[in-house]
Design goal:
345 residues, mainly alpha, two-stranded antiparallel ribbon, 59% helix, globular
């Protein structure tokens, strides 16, 4: 007869551990699930939160990491966007050079005399166009010198801008940077550039760098005047004169760039020389020029536009040109260029 097996207790799903308080009695208690949980389990999102708290999309650490990754991605995108192409001349500037060359060739040939009937009076319109385009190119070079020096000095905000790409039609401050210089030349008959208020002077740390940025524009205008003066000298040897329209236009552009450099060196608000003085002063001086530079530039032009002041100023520049240029007849060609520009007078 088979021996009956002792009854077995049903296995409980709950794990048990010995109860230290009743160790002698041999009683056991149910194991606490929190004691069996790994130490790093509480780092999981939502663990330990109150029962009434709503689950969040992520912890603060994950949000900080995602923010840092986003910033790094934006910085990487900005670095990828920057390239050597940010300093290439704009197609607009290349077009201006081409138009200047074409207008210069037409002025050299004086084709408007061939187009008109014999014996009729001719008002040349292509030479004024040549002077206008040449002056816009000169303005672009002047502002490019400011912007490039400012970039090298610490103002990185100008990278890829129209100032560094020689595109005056896309200037951030087109009225002061392009419109006013053209109006100054047309009405006054002398060159004057607008204030460089687009430069962030606070990003340029040292005094010497600020002075270099301020003087870069007038130096560029002097360089343009020198290049054009050498060209005129090669075309018209010393002791000779010329009434060629293209040569007269280039001679007047020498005068325009020279007057622009001289006037901008004055330590007056709205001019480059003021920022040289402001480099030795407090930040209020620079802030004043940034806010009121445009109005001060117009005021300086208004004073120079007065007939008495203008005659004295032009006579002084003509005398200086006679000393600097090898051809004594250069001043006469400059005056002819001015007459070609202001054909309405």
């Amino acid at each position: 007869m088979p021996t009956p097996e002792p009854p077995q207790q049903a296995e409980s799903d709950d794990a048990t551990v010995p109860d230290p308080e009743n160790a002698d009695s041999g009683q056991e208690r149910a194991a606490d699930p929190w004691d069996q949980m790994p130490d790093d389990a509480l780092n999981a999102a939502g663990v330990g939160a109150g029962s009434d708290a709503e689950p969040e999309s992520g912890s603060g650490v994950e949000a900080a990491k995602s923010g840092e990754e986003k910033d790094e991605a934006e910085k990487a995108e900005e670095e990828r966007a920057e390239s050597w192409a940010d300093f290439l001349p704009s197609p607009i500037f290349v077009l201006l050079l081409g138009l200047a060359g074409f207008a210069g060739w037409l002025s050299w040939r004086a084709v408007e005399l061939d187009w008109a009937e014999e014996g009729t009076a001719v008002t040349p319109l292509i030479p004024p166009l040549l002077i206008l385009i040449g002056w816009i190119v000169s303005v672009a070079v002047h502002e490019f010198a400011h912007a490039l020096t400012a970039y090298l000095a610490g103002d990185r905000s100008l990278r890829g801008s129209a100032y560094l790409r020689l595109n005056p039609f896309a200037y951030r401050e087109a009225f002061g940077g392009l419109v006013l210089p053209v109006v100054y030349l047309g009405l006054g008959g002398f060159g004057l550039n607008g204030p460089p208020t687009y430069v962030d002077w606070e990003r340029i740390p040292s005094r010497g760098r600020r002075i270099a940025v301020a003087l870069a524009g007038p130096l560029a205008s002097l360089l343009m005047a020198a290049v054009l003066a050498v060209t005129v000298t090669l075309l018209v040897p010393p002791g000779q004169d010329s009434v060629n329209w293209a040569i007269a236009a280039m001679a007047f552009l020498v005068f325009a760039n020279l007057t622009s450099a001289i006037v901008n060196l004055l330590p007056l608000p709205g001019l480059d020389g003021y920022h040289v003085l402001a480099a030795f002063r407090s930040a209020k001086w620079t802030a004043f020029a940034k806010v009121n530079g445009l109005f001060c530039s117009i005021a300086v032009f208004a004073v120079l536009w007065l007939p008495v002041v203008r005659d004295l100023f032009e006579s002084a520049v003509y005398s200086l040109s006679e000393l600097l240029l090898p051809n004594d007849n250069a001043t006469g060609m400059m005056f002819l260029g001015k007459l070609l520009l202001q054909f309405w007078e």
